[in-house]
Design a protein that fits this description.
By secondary structure, the chain is of the alpha+beta class. It contains 18 helices and 20 strands. The longest helix has about 60 residues. The protein is flat, with a radius of gyration of 50 Å.
Length: about 650
């Protein structure tokens, strides 16, 4: 029967027919009762439907909870490999919001080196409508990677799709990697140990295993070692007490035996120290022995006596003084060279404390230094003047280090006469000062010459060019109207003269900018503006505290250092902005030049020999100042200059 309401209506009316044709009409009370019954029945059906709907919604919510918050990631891909469905666990695993992932290609989250593996697995699923699994590396949007186990199944329908389950296997892979590394390290330690390692079966005293070092000691291969026992590596006459010693190890009465004779395969005997312990492997007790060959130690004992004789020969014959001082500061021992350096007799030194060798005014300081070194245990090097009993003054270099001999603490000092070296250092320092003064003198002379040339160019050439321009202008006024043909030529001459005037101004500015004569602020303002106009790098000047009492020499020094810094920025920094800050710190004037360029390693050796940075430092030193450079690759550079406002002035020639 059709469920169409209109057709049902027509059928019902046809069945009802005409009352006049003999159809029995039911009473109204019966019809009302039947309608009430149907109404109640419909209400019950509605209640059942509502309960079924609630159960369906609860079931759907449980499914969503189980699906979205499952401990593994669920994804559904279409035939093109696009994500059409993914749970929240999957979104968190890939590190992207759930809504963003929809219609994203899953391949974009596969590490490039695993692309081929994923394509092969995906195409195989679509072609054969089966299941598959693989492990591959996935990468999140932030670039981090993780290992994932991928279980896939092809869904058959009108349009094929692939259902994927992803499990993060990174922790398992890391555990496996650590376990493998641990096993490799343990095997490397076992096989690479310098001591022999032996595993003995307690039931029959046979060897179970040994490392390569033990095989080298005994002269057997690993296969041959497995056929031996305790009795095979000892002389028959030594075996009884060896077995007794072995029994003491088993009973735990000792864990170390020294100087045990062991028989090699070739019949030779060597001596070992054996340290043992009981170990449990597969519910079976073994004894683990560590063999250390002490044959060399025995030979060393013989060599020790020879070494002591050699030590005494060196101690007595060394060119440096050696002195041993006890905990109270008393001189305990010394060699002849120290006695010669001190100019004192053997008996005098034996009755002297180390600080008593210093003058009375410095003895207390030397005493404090001695006890500080003994307390901290730190080595210390120093040098001082020493006046010998005969009145001769020498320079002594001393290096002391605490040592322990026979349970007692001493200070061992090595001394040497550095009088000649001190004399050479003083001469070298004086020579360096002379060179620095000469360099400063040369720089001052060059600046004076530049100023003189700039003045000559400005005053002489500038005036001549200005006069020439006035004459040409006058020529244009007098004859230009009557001779129009001359006007272009006259204009060309004016242009050439203007270029010459500008060239003279540029030469003057390069040799000695006029702004220098107006103070450091004006000079730096001109320099920053000229730098910004000449390059594509913005440059700003900030004056925190204007120095009013800065003389010409220091103004010029600051200007040239800033100029050199800006030149370096142009050549090497690849910066976009430079900031110059002028200020004062105490009685000193400071300038800071900061750029946002590529930076460099200040201590690195430059590929091309350059004197720019050294020249900046030397300029500052010439006026008792300093230059500090701070930089790092990729972090720009900061040049900090600080010079005193007044003080030692740089040297100048009289005719400067």
């Amino acid at each position: 029967m059709s469920n169409n309401p209109e057709k049902l209506r027509v059928a019902a009316e046809a069945k009802l027919g005409d009352p006049d044709k003999g159809v029995l009409v039911r009473p109204a009370e019966e019809l009302l009762h039947e309608l009430q019954v149907h109404q109640i029945e419909l209400e019950m059906q509605n209640e059942t439907l509502r309960e079924a709907q609630l159960e369906l919604e609860e079931s759907r919510d449980r499914y969503l909870d189980l699906y979205d918050f499952a401990p593994v990631a669920y994804l559904t891909l279409n035939q093109s490999g696009m994500i059409v469905e993914i749970n929240h666990t999957g979104a968190e695993l890939l590190g992207i919001e759930h809504s963003v992932l929809i219609n994203k290609r899953f391949l974009t989250f596969v590490a490039p080196e695993d692309h081929d593996r994923w394509r092969e697995n995906f195409l195989n699923l679509l072609n054969h409508a089966g299941t598959g699994s693989c492990e591959m590396r996935l990468q999140r949007q932030d670039g981090s990677r993780f290992y994932a186990r991928c279980e896939s199944r092809c869904l058959n329908g009108d349009v094929r799709a692939v259902r994927i389950t992803l499990t993060d296997n990174t922790a398992r892979r890391q555990t496996e990697t650590r376990l493998r590394e641990s096993e490799e390290k343990l095997r490397a330690i076992y096989e690479g140990a310098l001591d022999g390692i032996l595993l003995v079966n307690l039931e029959n005293l046979r060897f179970e295993n040994g490392n390569p070092a033990l095989c080298r000691m005994l002269g057997y291969s690993l296969e041959e070692l497995a056929l031996l026992g305790v009795a095979d590596i000892h002389l028959p006459e030594d075996l009884p007490w060896i077995i007794e010693d072995f029994g003491m190890h088993l009973r735990g009465e000792r864990d170390m035996s020294a100087d045990i004779p062991v028989l090699r395969r070739d019949g030779s005997v060597f001596y070992v120290d054996i340290k043992s312990s009981i170990v449990l492997i597969d519910n079976k007790n073994y004894i683990l022995g560590i063999f250390r060959d002490v044959t060399a130690r025995r030979q060393a004992e013989i060599g020790l006596r020879e070494s002591e004789e050699k030590f005494h020969a060196i101690f007595e014959g060394t060119l440096n003084g050696v002195v041993l001082i006890d905990e109270t500061g008393m001189i305990a021992d010394f060699n002849p060279e120290f006695m010669r350096q001190s100019g004192m007799t053997f008996d005098q030194l034996k009755q002297t404390r180390i600080w008593e060798l210093r003058p009375a005014g410095k003895a207390e300081l030397a005493r404090n230094i001695f006890f500080e070194v003994m307390k901290t245990g730190l080595c210390r090097a120093d040098d001082f003047k020493f006046k010998k009993p005969d009145g001769k003054v020498i320079h002594i270099g001393i290096r002391g280090a605490p040592i322990s001999i026979g349970g007692k603490h001493y200070l061992q000092c090595i001394t040497h006469d550095i009088s000649e070296r001190k004399k050479t250092e003083i001469e070298l320092r004086e020579y360096q000062m002379l060179l620095r003064e000469l360099a400063a003198q040369g720089a001052a002379s060059r600046e004076a010459e530049r100023r003189h040339i700039a003045r000559e160019v400005h005053d002489e050439l500038g005036q001549l060019l200005t006069a020439l321009r006035m004459d040409i202008s006058l020529l244009r006024i007098q004859f230009g109207a009557d001779n129009p043909v001359l006007m272009p030529k006259i204009q060309d001459m004016l242009n050439l003269v203007d270029k010459a005037i500008q060239g003279a101004r540029d030469v003057t500015a390069n040799l000695h900018p006029p702004a220098l004569d107006m103070g450091i602020v004006s000079a730096l303002t001109w320099l920053s503006n000229e730098f910004a106009a000449r390059t594509s790098i913005s440059c700003s000047l900030q004056v925190n505290d204007k120095p009013h009492d800065l003389d010409d020499a220091r103004t010029l020094t600051l200007f040239r250092i800033v100029q050199e810094s800006l030149t370096n920025v142009t050549r090497y920094a690849q910066a976009t902005h430079v900031e110059i800050v002028l200020g004062k710190r105490g009685e000193n004037v400071t300038v800071q030049i900061r750029d946002d360029g590529t930076g460099f390693e200040p201590d690195a050796v430059p590929a091309v020999k350059s004197f720019g940075l050294m020249g900046m430092r030397e300029r500052a030193l010439a006026v008792s100042g300093k230059v500090e450079i701070t930089s790092a690759p990729g972090q720009g550079a900061v040049v900090f200059v600080e010079i005193p406002v007044s003080g030692v002035k740089p040297g100048r020639r009289i005719n400067d």
